[in-house]
Amino acid sequence: xxxxxxxxxxxxxxxxxxxxxxxxxxxxxxxxxxxxxxxxxxxxxxxxxxxxxxxxxxxxxxxxxxxxxxxxxxxxxxxxxxxxxxxxxxxxxxxxxxxxxxxxxxxxxxxxxxxxxxxxxxxxxxxxxxxxxxxxxxxxxxxxxxxxxxxxxxxxxxxxxxxxxxxxxxxxxxxxxxxxxxxxxxxxxxxxxxxxxxxxxxxxxxxxxxxxxxxxxxxxxxxxxxxxxxxxxxxxxxxxxxxxxxxxxxxxxxxxxxxxxxxxxxxxxxxxxxxxxxxxxxxxxxxxxxxxxxxxxxxxxxxxxxxxxxxxxxxxxxxxxxxxxxxx
Length: 328
Hints:
The protein has 3 domains: 13-57 and 180-232, RNA polymerase, RBP11-like subunit (Gyrase A, domain 2, 2-Layer Sandwich), CATH 3.30.1360; 59-178, Beta Complex (RNA Polymerase Alpha Subunit, Chain A, domain 2), CATH 2.170.120; 247-328, DNA polymerase, domain 1, CATH 1.10.150. Helix content is 25%, strand content 31%. It is built from 9 helices and 13 strands.
């Protein structure tokens, strides 16, 4: 009887994807389970993950549009069925995907008559359109539609201030919706396991295709862990409660002597999903593992390029570390 109780208490929770489907290019669904959990844990995790999925997952969208020879958002364009405002709303609905930060530029240069869709947008290689059939405008006459767009990656919802832009230059801001997760639900199933009540968490995720639900779950979990890292070291620091310290500085330079590198996992770093996945494939799980590789060693891995190396170096240096030089 004692052996059974011990085996239950040390059982590690495991997650599983029990359903995954693509209802359309702009609607993906995933259903996941996590079990076994002790009584109350499923609700704690469910609440935290729902908020993290809705608020902490990054997305990519168009944030600014520039028209040629247009100065009023509500004006009509002769020869085009849609008004300027209608075109802006259509551009706002476009779902994009990018692993690169910063402002990227795209353009549309179409001579009508033609129905303009998202496949007519010229984009940099780092940006991908999820649904190339999304409608933008219908050019009825032999005129040119010339548009330039700014594309950014971010988090949450940002309401643009029109006063920061000059419409006389044909520049119009678009409210940014950086939220690839459309909706999240969770439910809890309780059951008896021996003498202990255990729980199973069911998590349902709907995304717009910018990320699939599995990727969104990974990113939300990683970002949630990153938010909690400061609490792991509060007992070792003399911090004035009124002071704000950036997360990257919560690990001081003396960390090299005080903290075992094996206790710091790459999950705690804000790495892109592609880089994280390739490091895990190489069995690089901890900071200690990563510091055994030089930049040249990492470049030999598939899909690890100079941009990936720079991202890794920036993160390591913010924690007071650096990759070793090539031993060859």
